[in-house]
Amino acid sequence: MGTLYRPWGQLQWLLEQYGTTKWDLFGSLSTEDRCLAVRNTLYNRHSLNNTYLAQIRDADSLYSIVISQLIRNRTQDLLQLGGSIHDIGQHELFESPETVIAAALKFSKSSIGNVIIDISALPKRFFFLAIKTFLNTQVTNIIATYTIPAQYRSDEIAEDFQPWRPLPTFAAQSHDIPIQEFFVSVGHITMGLPEELESMSRNTKVKIFLPFPGHSQSIKRNWQFVQTIQEALPEGMKPILKVVHARDVSESFDHIVADTDHGVREALLAPFGPKPISLAMCLYACKNTNSRVYYTQPRIYPPDYSVGIEMKEGIPNIYGYCIRINGIDLYTV
Amino acid sequence: MANSINPFMQQYIGEIASPEDFVNLFSPVLIPHFLSLFQKGNVVLRGTQGSGKSMLLNLLKPDISIAYSRAHATSPIPATLRRFLSAGINLTRSDAVSLGQRSTAPTREEDNLASPLYFADFVNYWIVLDLLNSVEKINSASDVFDHLVDAKYLDAFAQALAKEECWFGYLNDITSFAKLKEKITDRISSYRKFHQFNIEEIPVSVRNTKTAIGEPISKTAVCLKEQGVVSPETPVFVRIDQLEFLLESSEIRSGLGQEYRRVINKALSTRDPAISYKLGVRTYAWSNDTRVYGAGNTLELERDYRIEDIDDLLRRQENRRSWVLPVFAEDVFERRLAYVGYDTITITDRHTTLMRKVFGMGTAPKETARRYCMNTTDIRRALRLPADISDAWDELLQAMFKMDPLSATLAAAWAQQTGGAGRVNRFAAPVPIGQILPWDRTWWRKERIRQALMQLAARCGQRMTWGGETQILALSGNNILIFVSLCQHIWDSFLRAQKTKQQNEKINPISDGIPEEAQSIGILSASTHWHDKITETPGGHERKRFVDVLGKEFRRSLLEDQHMSYPGANGFSITNEELDLPSSERVRVLLQQAVDYGVLIEVPHTTKMNDRKPRTKWYLNPIYSPYFNIPETHVKEPQYVRVTDVLTWIGKSENQAMSILNLPTTSKSSLNKELNSSSPQLGLFTDWDPK
Predict the structure, then answer these.
(1) Does the distance separating the beta carbons of A166 and B662 come in below 8 Å?
(2) Which residue does chain B place closest to A152, by CA atoms?
């Protein structure tokens, strides 16, 4: 911990450090405006090699027609900016993990060894698996990217939560090991999490990652989230609030590593908060088998989950996180 | 110390509460009604979510018996039924549902055939391991279980069990009990490793030795008896929880969950005398599929299993004395207070319940009405009197209102009823005289009091107030978890109010009771909490949108009905015949799931219609009544509706969801065209386009 410098920051800056290197992009094609921001940035810089955009179909819902139309519009956007219909792969939200793994493996095999995975609009069920798969391959460089939207939906951002279940391939290695550390990142909605907390063992230490500074729209929701968690915990259990930088993957990762005594203590990770903190949890869980990642996966995302792209000095506000540089993994336990 | 603690802070004592908490908080009131759980025979324990199924099934775990003993408390299970072995599986927590997420065969067809077999094998091994763990636990606390287990035969048992053909040789090398557990653990671990993609394939040793559902569990039970580990008459119970997940999970491949469910059904269908299965399941989730895996037959009620229904037991019957909920709630209430240090033994006198001492009887309706109208000066507006009212009526009602606004409201409603087709408006007729006025007739009045209070509160710009033991029980909707939650929110509200008071002003909740204002605030808070919670369960958003439309619809109906001709309009009824039509499937599924998750309450309806067709009626769970500001009582006839009416409500709920979508105007415009062309009924974006 702390021995490796883990570069992260604005994607433009990060790409400049790599000079003229070309990149293969694994991302998504969704209703969200931000889903193509990384692709377009790479394209405009002439840094784009292969592209794979997973178009993930939610469960049928009252939004289905709207979603289909928006996806068609988004596909047109892609084609107008030099993309191809062959860049898009069709997926189901709850498809078998082996399908996602196969897509990631196929992508990495055809890549030039420099992979960018854009997690902006990829559901956790996908990007956790994809990152785990990439880390198990021989690709030389891996960067994860995250685009900040202009605004999030003011109403609930996801619907129809599934029961509390491990993300595919992130279950416990053994069923009877008690959880010692429980990390939950604070998001907009608790999605069935309180019911799990009500029955949590008092021997478990609960750590709440409160993102700061978060998106201005998120502050009230985040504190409501914290309050809900505190109220749901069994009497006498006092959670430890850890204020973490909402964009700093490395900081959250280091917190987890330190609190688990470098992975010795059994941890349960609940990624309900900003994607960069989820990314930190993912990277930890990929490298440590004494951990499990649980989530109440929504089946439906409204088409206005996020709208627009936040701009910073005239360019899209995209963060990039180096995960592997020249074959060396930067996030190790 | 107890005075500053909320005794109801911890609501949940279900699946994985610590055994110590369980002993302190579990109420044994329901046990005599569910003794079949502790007797031989397969039992399906049905109930809505949160009704206490897991709590009851937990009593079968040895840890709970040990905790009772360590706390020097008597087990709630009758002494004659305490000698049993048990094991169990929670299908989600065990991760059994992950089986099938990864292909085990080269083609989908082969995989579809193999996956249920692996599922059955996993369930078998999991339950056998749990049974062996139970045997060890019971042995390590032999004083608690009165030497139920004789450990000196465990190794012989393991050797004998390993020779059984049901394992297909997988356990051939077993020489001891410890080795047996190790080998079984290895097998479960192999499944986990495979589904975590940590190994390339399921080991050949596992692939070639798949077991038939139930058989290894049965052989284990028989062997334990034959080898003298337990006596031959010891019953062996197997708990299976979260069965509904198999049919509802999006994680399990389409069709596979159904096969898994049928695998479990097959275990029950064998009517194996060595094993009794005890299943906890939501009401409709059980009846969704009772077919047996690999066979054409279905499970037979009473022959293959019996049903115990928690909701049926707790539902109020005509005779209040046989209603179990008040006794159950009182017991839970006392235990919670005793747990945090209140002396509930000496403070309870013989004339009243502790709950009544704390919550009181509730304010009388007349007084409630007075409070609603305290600041009202415009009486004609409060009573919604028509312009053409006669002077006699006007004078009477104005005078009555000043003395008794509730009676004045009821009288005004009576006068606006026509009394049948062709009759004239009673406001034009003379004012009735007599000892018992028509609006004072017992049943006429009783059925309309809550509607009258609701209308008065609305017309006087007040929220309805809530409180008192009876109303709290009614709002609980037969669900003990909701009752505890109501108590928690009331106590919170009370403690908050206490914080700002001087020491000498502070109230003792037991001797003085919790003030009604704090109760009302707490009840509204609990109601809002439960309304918010609707979305926490699968399919919850659709249900919440539907409930929101229903709540508003009911309130509108009850408010607009100034004649108070339909005081039962906070529920609706449909003929069973229409609901059973294939075309009604969407409505039927929505209503069934709403009942399963406790959002709606379903009751058979004895119709007053001439056709006498069997009907079913639905009400919102009473806990939502404060949130929607509607009465919680169910009186007289509900609204008679058609399936198309329910579809209209569903349509409204969807339109509301679509109307708040935040999309760019250009997108909305093009989308609106598409929607209109694909579905002429839905003009979802009309409101957004100013043109």
Answers:
(1) no
(2) B662
Helix (H) or strand (E) holding A183: strand A181-185
Question: B88 pairs with which residues across the strands?
Answer: B239
Q: Are B256 and B104 in contact (CB under 8 A)?
A: no
Q: What is the pTM of this model?
A: 0.88
* Residue A41 near residue A318 (C-beta atoms within 8 A): yes
Instruction: State how far the alpha carbon of B380 is from the alpha carbons of A283, B399, B460, B609, B671, in Å.
Output: 70, 11, 11, 37, 49
**Backbone φ and ψ of A171, nearest 5°:** -80, 175
Interchain pair B250, A69: CB under 8 A: no
Position A199 pLDDT exceeds 70: no
Residues of A in contact with B94 (CB under 8 A): 175
Q: Do A153 and B662 touch (CB under 8 A)?
A: yes
Cα-based torsion angle of the residue sequence A291, A129, A257, A220 in order, rounded to the nearest 10 degrees: -100
Type of residue at B287: S
- Determine the average pLDDT of the residues in A4-28: 95
Which of A56, A60, A162, A221 is most worth mutating to test chain B (most B CB atoms within 10 A of its CB)? Answer: A162
pLDDT of B50 above 90: no
pLDDT of residue A99: 94
Q: What is the fold, at CATH topology level, of the domain defined by A8-153+304-329?
A: Rossmann fold (3.40.50)
Domain boundaries, chain A: 8-153+304-329, 163-296
Instruction: Give the span between the Cα atoms of B681 and B95, in whole angstroms.
Output: 43
Q: Do A171 and B196 touch (CB under 8 A)?
A: yes
Longest dimension (CA), chain B: 101
Segment A20-41 shows an average pLDDT of 96
Q: ipTM exceeding 0.85?
A: yes
Task: Say how many C-beta atoms besides its own lie within 10 A of residue A33's C-beta.
Answer: 21
**R_g over Cα of chain B:** 30
3-state secondary structure of A155: coil
Q: A331: Cβ–Cβ under 8 A, 6 or more apart, which residues?
A: A6, A249, A250, A253, A280, A283, A284, A287, A323
- Best A175, A182, A230, A231 member to test B by mutation, with max B CBs in 10 Å, is A175
Q: Under DSSP, is residue A174 helix (H, G, I), strand (E, B) or coil?
A: coil
Here the tokens at position A31 are: 């209703």
Asked if residue B610 has pLDDT above 90, the reply is no
Residue B437 has pLDDT above 90, yes or no: no
Task: Please give the residue that has the higher pLDDT: either B11 or B571.
Answer: B571
Q: Do domains A8-153+304-329 and A163-296 have the same CATH topology?
A: yes
The answer to whether the CB atoms of A96 and B102 lie below 8 A apart is: yes
Topology (CATH level 3) of domain A163-296: Rossmann fold (3.40.50)
Structure confidence at residue A220 as a pLDDT band (50, 70, 90): confident
Residues of chain A contacting residue B10, judged by C-beta atoms under 8 Å apart: 198, 234-235
Mutate which of A56, A167, A235 to disrupt the B interface (most B C-beta within 10 Å)?
A: A235
Q: A182: helix, coil or strand?
A: strand
Q: What would you report as the CA-atom Rg of chain A, rounded to the nearest whole angstrom?
A: 19
Dihedral sign for Cα atoms in the order B411, B413, B419, B425: positive
Q: Cβ distance A69 to B671 under 8 Å?
A: yes
Q: Is the pLDDT of residue B170 over 90?
A: yes
Q: State the Cα–Cα distance between residues A195 and A20, nearest whole angstrom.
A: 50
Q: What is the pLDDT of residues B178-228, one digit of tens each?
A: 999 999 999 999 999 999 888 999 999 999 999 999 999 999 999 999 999
Q: Per the CB < 8 Å rule, is B17 touching A163?
A: no
**Least Cα separation, residue A161 to chain B (angstroms):** 5
Q: ∠ CA A271-A183-B242 to the nearest 5 degrees?
A: 70
